[in-house]
Design a protein that fits this description.
Elongation Factor Tu (Ef-tu), domain 3; Rossmann fold; 3 domains; 6-stranded antiparallel sheet; 5-stranded parallel sheet; 11 strands; elongated
């Protein structure tokens, strides 16, 4: 991993270690961990401090700030760490009261029970409400199948969870209340996270600097795939091939919620195009849109592009609608590149852009390999090795379903292909 890809990780570690380091120097360790009660209390305090820090960072990561994307080398990496930090902070915040209750149990069962009774102590009540609401939201996320807009609405309540947790940290007697450095650091980071989380959850829809486009054409490529052509009303977004944007429709009979879509058009074109497959209610409704609908476009985001790879001898592997970013790359491909493109679909009727790629193949140094699983079975690394040969001297770009990409990655690595030469953007909102 290059240094520019490590900056974000190092920043998270540093931001987390600062309050932990301060906590360790507030009192002698032999006092904090002298006996069982002290150990449980100290572990509870550490879990609370680290959990609050990571929760704050998590809200900052969710705000889709461009400079943070650069630190992590792509918004997909930002969201990947967002998900991981969310799970870690949840576990720590859950263990924070449990460790403290264990220490209380050694003193009195009533004292431990009182800890979970709300409204006896207002700061403790904030913590109890925060924890209960977080548990409910986590259960809904992992165990209940929700439609995207319902999931997105439930996720906004994480800001409320954090606000209650922050109030608990502000008013509960603890090292945070006793030490000015810890108080300023943790509450300062917390309020930054709260402000950005609140903005992203509730205000970004209304306060933004997004480009406004007009829906010019709706092209039905097949019963489940539609291509939208959008023209700028004023400001035109600048992007590199392979990037994606968040699109929100401002009018028309469709939900006003933002969704990520890869751009399929070349950067030099005035209009942009996106190719969308029907995967749910929202995407299924796109084919019914009429030209003239206004669209808010946020972005671009992402680092998945042939331009970000030094080696110009590349293999592109697309599955289904994963062809979209490669369409943008192919349409703007320079003559100094040598490309093998594997276009994987179930059958020929699903390869909606195959004719255009065949035309590009004639004009540019790109070889198109249609791969229909109904005829040849699933594409595997062995077939790629036989067709493209000399894989060790080529960079491989993947785009498609997560299981497709992870399976091919493992197969390629088993053929001694270096991990650094395999590139994909596994973007997930959940």
């Amino acid at each position: 991993m290059s240094m520019r890809k490590k900056i974000g990780i190092l920043a998270i570690l540093l931001l987390t270690l600062i309050p932990v380091g301060r906590w360790f120097f507030l009192e002698p360790l032999n006092y904090r961990f002298f006996n069982f009660i002290g150990t449980m209390t100290s572990l509870g305090q550490l879990a609370g401090i680290i959990g609050l820090t990571l929760f704050s960072i998590n809200l900052i990561l969710s705000a889709r700030i461009k400079i943070i994307e650069r630190f992590f080398y792509g918004l997909n990496k930002v969201y990947s760490y967002h998900h991981k930090l969310g799970a870690i902070s949840f576990a720590l915040i859950l263990f924070h009261p449990l460790f403290l209750v264990v220490s209380y149990l050694t003193v009195s069962l009533k004292l431990a029970a009182d800890f979970f009774i709300p409204f006896n102590n207002i700061p403790v009540t904030y913590g109890i409400l925060s924890l209960l609401l977080m548990i409910i939201l986590m259960v809904m996320t992992f165990y209940i199948q929700m439609k995207y807009h319902h999931w997105k609405m439930s996720h906004k309540f994480m800001v409320v969870v954090f606000m209650l947790g922050l109030l608990h940290s502000m008013f509960i007697p603890s090292d945070i209340s006793r030490d000015m450095f810890l108080r300023v650091y943790l509450l300062g980071l917390g309020f930054i996270g709260l402000a950005l989380g609140f903005y992203q959850a509730f205000l970004s829809k209304w306060i933004h600097n997004n480009a406004i486009y007009n829906l010019k054409k709706v092209n039905i490529l097949n019963p489940s795939v539609v291509e939208l052509e959008l023209e700028p009303l004023k400001r035109k977004i600048k992007f590199i091939p392979g990037q994606f944007v968040f699109i929100r429709f401002l009018s028309g009979n469709i939900k006003s919620e933002s969704h990520p879509f890869s751009i399929s058009s070349a950067p030099e074109k005035n209009n942009i195009q996106v190719v969308v497959k029907s995967l749910g209610d929202f995407t299924s409704d796109l084919k019914n849109l009429q030209p003239g609908v206004h669209v808010s476009i946020e972005g671009p985001y992402g680092k998945f592009s042939h331009l970000n790879i030094e080696n110009k001898n590349q293999i592109w592997i697309a599955a289904g609608v994963g062809i979209t970013p490669f369409a943008s790359m192919a349409r703007s491909l320079g003559s100094d590149y040598k490309i093998d493109l594997y276009y994987c679909t179930n059958n020929a009727s699903e390869a909606v852009l195959i004719d255009e790629f065949k035309n590009i193949e004639v004009a540019k140094n790109i070889r198109v390999v249609p791969w229909y699983s109904s005829e040849k079975g699933r594409l595997d690394a062995k077939a790629i090795f036989e067709i493209s040969t000399d894989l060790n001297n080529k960079d491989i770009l993947l785009c498609g379903p997560s299981l497709f990409m992870s399976s091919l990655e493992k197969q390629l690595i088993s053929l001694n292909i270096k991990r650094k030469n395999i590139h994909f953007e596994d973007f997930k909102l959940v």
